[in-house]
């Protein structure tokens, strides 16, 4: 089915000729009044979010007193301004005064009601808001035509626009005046098939709606108990306005905290009301799902569609609910239990226990935050900043002002996304720890897996003075090893990005001896032209490092096959080693590796070595399908071999969001990372079997948390266990990445036993260097990290 989001755009009407099969042409007044078969109802919202039925349909009706043989006839459909028809051939006979049901395409909303058994089945996906449908007989004659919504062609004028829960139907099945706007009205779908028998031709009285309050429409649930119902006399005051609708809030609340007093009124075009107007609204209750109905895990928001709005006066806006003061969100429980789809009937709705229900209970209402704290940097492209209230926040707070995602049971459920779309230019760009001093007021919305406070009156952004960290320089007897995801670095990136990254490497990381880089793109960047080599990318970065006062790094990597390692299409990202020989680090070069070859372990004891260096690990393993293969290199330092394995595991893309409709969220992507961790762990086991005292460093973007099963697999157990360095830090300091306001570990450095036990007196030092993830002007979305190891890596 068409995505609902497509119909949020205004469509400009234009005169168009409708071409049916063959040479049929339909002008604005296509035919005379029909005396046989007519279109009696059309529904295009089938299976969409908020749909009543799971399929589109066209219902026909026989006006005549004799049966009509439909063999050779067809139902034909055009979009509102389209010129190409889609056809459903008809067959069978429609009896006098009887309906005939043509089922068309189905949507993804399986909770919607199935149609009665159709008389004919087609596959046409029709618009939920407007289009054109014709009945065409075997000679090509258009017997009847319906245009509705923004249709450019109709009999007379088009009928009114529909929405996901509404259809357009004849007010009297026995009457055809050849004027669609007169003959048809919008209402709840009522499909009839031929088995329903003859029906009364008396006019259907118009549905003038059910009287309802905002709270009754919202109900104590994630979807409205009145979805698909026409409502009237819905009263409230306008609290905020945007280009396609406005929010109202009741001035006579019901006193029940579980039912929201606010709702969005979707006007499709710019509304004429303003904040402070008292209004009475007539319209149809609908559920809108951001991203469309097809397969998305987003929650819906309740709204009133197709409204008729009457301004009845003016009123002061209701006082906002102050989060953290008037009401406090459940701090660490998004949803208790494992019900699956929380929008289904029967799922408990408990705002006092579940943060997702708590937020739903205030959907569309005026809320406020006092001294809101930024717990993620502002995404300046979208004007979004993750925030928490300035009071009553129970979380693992980072020393720099963020909140730490310390386990699956600590999702920091009090977070909201502060959005500036209603007050463009009035909210500055924040770093983590900055405060919006005073009161920030707005309306609560939901967009793409997050509850969002659309600011109407923002507080004053106060800079908390967050500085980029600078790590310590290695001492003369230390080898410094670092990892850094440089976020799709390509030759086409501006020189400023290279210069700033080089500055981080030289100044903030103190020019480490070995640097494993992730997300180095090929020489043509994201252009999909078959290029796989990345010499230009690494050379440009090396030159920028030297220009910033750093050493003359050398680089090693293995080019992947084209379009096989995931990431940005055409970019062919890979891991690359940079190393400096001026401090005694040498690369043990064993050439011959290709994208299709796997390196292996040979020798024993101090003679343990790789067959290819640099090389890739088990490249044919299914664990690496559409994902980066690990890069392993053998280095020599102080006359000892050091084996470094640089990784970039599969992303978390496709996992259920924390604030999605499926609870508990399914982390489907982690199965591949578990397999990848097992492959890498197996290679480490080979090295340690050959030499139990081998110096092994596993590092890179693991795309999983320090408390995850993925990390457990990498660590292993017993005498061969690796030490995951993020786990050695105090909990508030464990983060390399900030996602939707949650500080979390995605990047790791793990050390083999020999590297750890020779440093039992804590002579090594490990540092996550916070230079990017907390800042709105970041050069990458990841923070680098570094470990400094003593020269004496002997037994």
Automatic annotation (TrEMBL):
Name listed for the protein in its UniProt record: LTD domain-containing protein
Give the matching Pfam families: Exo_endo_phos_3, LTD
Does the keyword section mention Signal? Answer: yes
> By its UniProt entry, which PROSITE patterns does this protein fall under?
LTD, TAT
The signal peptide annotation in the UniProt record is 1-32
Source species:
Yimella lutea
Gene Ontology MF, one: catalytic activity
Note the superkingdom of the native organism: Bacteria
Q: Which UniProt keywords apply?
A: Signal
Q: For the region Disordered, what residue ranges are annotated?
A: 152-210
Spans of biased composition, class Polar residues?
A: 152-182, 190-202
Q: Locate the LTD domain: which residues?
A: 27-150
